[in-house]
Design brief:
Helices cover 7% and strands 34% of the residues. The chain is mainly beta and 311 residues long.
């Protein structure tokens, strides 16, 4: 029977839809386009440099030992070795404090959510795409090396030729020791591979055996900001594609999604929910352990600040 309802008008007068109707045959499959997805991410993305994390075995005598008995080397941090892989342009979709998509101000965000394409911006040696797979504890730096931030800290001189600071330093602005002596870059020390390297004869002095500590210095320096992979909301993202000729369907991997966190928050010893102290509700980290620099991140013993150890 005929209806008395007026015809449905989905759009107001003089407003037209920009969606064109498409007739799809029942036998034709609709597939995602992974290559187009990758191109979209690169065209709207931010170029980062991916560093892989690998648990550092140097100096270990027991596979289950979580302590870090080895000395300084520039590519080790929090008990992990880091090796640079390649640059990759990732789409920054949002951050934890503001759900909006942002094109500027990304450096200041504590947490950011990225979607990297399936391959890096460079090809493998044989000319094939170099697949990108991220994992927790991996690092990502901004590809623009001129962007740096400021950090200052007190550290204990280890007495050797190099000292390791909290973050890999790029340039030292000011450096003074507990005796009031100021040091100049190039004359008293240099910055090499993220470490502070003393010029022979210009170091603050040998550690004081009677106190069991070295000379205390205060430093203000610049370093490149970076993020750690904190979580993978989409570690395995797949779709099925159908070959239009043969009709055979196969599974294809789609881009991952990673939650990144700035280094000064990720390395905070109270931030690791997997730490042994945090797993036991009846055990709280003691003031002595905190003063010794015991890092909940990987349960590693470190000196009071800087001088030598896992950082």
């Amino acid at each position: 029977m005929p209806s008395n309802r007026p015809p449905f008008k989905p759009f107001p007068k003089q407003q037209f839809t920009n969606v064109q109707e498409t007739d799809i045959a029942n036998s034709e499959a609709v597939n995602f386009d992974p290559d187009a997805f990758d191109d979209m991410l690169r065209s709207h993305g931010l170029t980062l440099v991916h560093w892989r994390a690998l648990k550092c075995p140097l100096g270990a005598v027991d596979a289950d030992d979580e302590r870090s008995p080895h000395g300084d080397h520039g590519d080790c941090s929090n008990g992990f070795l880091y090796r640079v892989v390649a640059p990759i342009t990732c789409a920054v979709s949002n951050n934890s404090d503001n759900p909006q998509v942002l094109d500027i101000g990304i450096v200041n965000q504590v947490n950011i959510l990225i979607t990297p394409p399936r391959s890096y911006d460079v090809l493998a040696i044989d000319g094939s795409p170099l697949q990108c797979l991220m994992a927790p504890y991996d690092r990502l730096y901004l590809a623009e090396e001129s962007i740096t931030v400021i950090n200052w800290q007190k550290f204990e001189v280890c007495g050797g030729p190099t000292d390791k600071l909290m973050y890999p330093l790029v340039m030292v602005e000011e450096l003074v020791d507990s005796r009031g002596k100021w040091y100049q870059e190039g004359e008293d020390f240099t910055c090499e591979a993220g470490l502070l390297k003393w010029v022979p004869g210009h170091a603050p002095g040998t550690p004081r055996a009677e106190a069991g500590t070295g000379v205390i210095c205060s430093i203000r320096y610049r370093y490149r900001p970076y993020w750690y992979v904190k979580d993978l909301p989409h570690e395995i993202r797949v779709t099925q594609l159908e070959d239009p000729i043969t009709g055979v369907r196969h599974t294809v991997r789609m881009p991952q999604q990673a939650l990144l966190q700035r280094e000064y928050v990720f390395e905070n010893q109270s931030n690791d929910p997997n730490a042994k102290e945090n797993q036991d509700p009846n055990k709280v980290i003691t003031g002595i352990a905190a003063s010794l620099g015991q890092s909940n991140l990987r349960q590693i013993m470190a000196p009071r600040s800087g001088g030598f150890g896992p950082r």
